[in-house]
Amino acid sequence: MNGNRGFTLLEVLIALAIFALIGLATYQMLDSVLRTDASTRAHDRELRELVRALAAFERDVLQVAVRPVRDGYGEALPALQGDSEDSARLELTRAGWRNPQGSLRAERQRVRWQLQNGQWQRLYWQVLDQAQDSQPQVQQALDGVTALSLRYLDQDGAWQDTWPPLTDTVEQRLTHLPLAVELRLQHRRQGELRRLLRLPEGLPDTPAEQVGEVTP
Description:
- The chain has helices at residues 9-62, 170-175; strands at 69-70, 76-77, 80-82, 90-94, 109-116, 119-124, 137-143, 145-153, 159-160, 180-187, 191-198.
- By secondary structure, it is an alpha+beta fold.
- The strands form 3 sheets. The protein has a 5-stranded antiparallel sheet with strand order 3-4-5-6-7, covered by helices on one side. The protein has a 4-stranded antiparallel sheet with strand order 9-8-10-11, covered by helices on one side.
- A hairpin with a 5-residue loop joins β1 (69-70) and β2.
- The longest helix is centred in the N-terminal third of the chain and has 54 residues, at 9-62.
- The chain starts with 8 loop residues before the first helix and ends in an 18-residue tail after the last strand.
- The relative contact order is 0.15.
């Protein structure tokens, strides 16, 4: 008589239960690893976007040029103007606009940073002195911004919420620059960030009466 025998039904059920538990534990561990990896990748992507946006903002501010412009209705606008209300806008003329293709345009650029529906946006114009049909190009610099504020340090060492100060004369408002700009940004995942940017000194002025005389 052959003494070999197969597994009993109970043994088979126990083995299946053990394999099922091992498979479930493995799946849960793999799912946890994948979720962690996805979260890490998303965090890393948001961090890179944040770094790029802050670098672009700092580059614009630190390359500010004392060049007032005219809007589409011919009104003169300050070389730098900003506020901290609602959209926390900062608009300025910057130098150093790269022109690798040698296009017929100015070497300076008019840009605006603003907060719009959780998006920190950078707008720029192809011309300095605008016509009524001049429309800005919009770049989405950073998503997930829950709050943003700006302050401006005047010549007396006092912080202003808007620029130019209301006490400036008409001439001063066009060419007067702050000593520094403070940015406070609240991000949904990165928390609050603060940047204090000291503007360069000794910038050459463009006289207000020359604004609009040169077509970029």
